[in-house]
Amino acid sequence: MKIDAFTIFPDYxxxxxxxxxxxxQEKGIVDxxxxxxxxxxxxxHNTVDDTPYGGGAGMVMLPEVWGKAIDSVLRDDSDIIVxxxxxxxxxxxxxxxxxxxxxxIFACGRYEGIDDRVRQHYExxxxxxxxxxxxxISIGDYVLGGxxxxxxxxxxxxxxxxxxxxxxxxxxSEESHNDEGWVEYPNFTKPAQWRxxxxxxxxxxxxxxxxxxxxxxxxILRAKKxx
Length: 227
Ligand code: 97T
Description:
Layout: E1 2-7, H1 19-26, E2 31-36, E3 49-50, E4 60-61, H2 63-71, E5 78-89, H3 92-99, E6 103-107, H4 117-122, H5 125-129, E7 133-138, H6 148-159, H7 170-177, E8 193-194, E9 197-198, H8 208-226
Helix pairs in contact: 3-6
The structure holds 2-(1,2-oxazol-5-yl)phenol.
C-alpha cells in the first residue's frame, strides 16, 4: 500500500515513520510519504489560505494549492481522504475497507477547512470513471486543530490490519469475532492477588470452554456499561 499525506506541518506526522509502521515500511508492506503542502504554492509568501467568501471567522485553504498537491500523486486507484469534523465517522469497518485499497491520499486541512471545490472537482464523473474516490472522514465528535492527528489515527488503524504488519495475527482473528472491535473481555496477568483483589477463579481453572463462556458474558456486561 502507498500512502501520501499532505500537511502544512510535516513534523506532526513524523511518528508515522516510527516503530510498528517503521517495520512495516522496512518490510515493504506500506510506503508512507509525507509532503509539505507549502511546496505546492506558487507565490513568494507560500500562501496556503485566504479569507472566506461570504465572510466569517478564520481562513480557508486555497483550492489551487490542494489541486497541485493531489495531482502530483494521483493514480487511477487512489482514495482521497479529507479529514474533517463534518465527515463520515471512522469505524473499524471503514478501516477494514481502506486496508484493502492500494493508494491512500490523506489531505490534512487546518484552519476552517479546504475550499469545497477541491472535493467537488475530484468527485466529478471524470475521476469516478478512473476509479478515484473522495471520502470526507471524521475520527469522532470533537474538534481538533487540524487533520494531522486524525490521519495518524487512521493510518495506525488501517495498516495494522494488513498482512505482515501485526506481530501476532491471532489477535486479528479474535477481533473479527466481534463486529467492530469494541466488545472486549477484561484481562488479568500475574500476580494472582494484587492489592487484595483476586484474579477470577475461572481463569485459573484450565477449563477453556467455561473460560470462553465467562469472557463472552463479561464482554457483553462491559459493553452495556460503557457504550
Ligand atoms: O477537527 C478537525 C479539524 C481538521 C481536520 C479534521 C478534524 C477532525 O477529524 N475528526 C474529528 C475532528
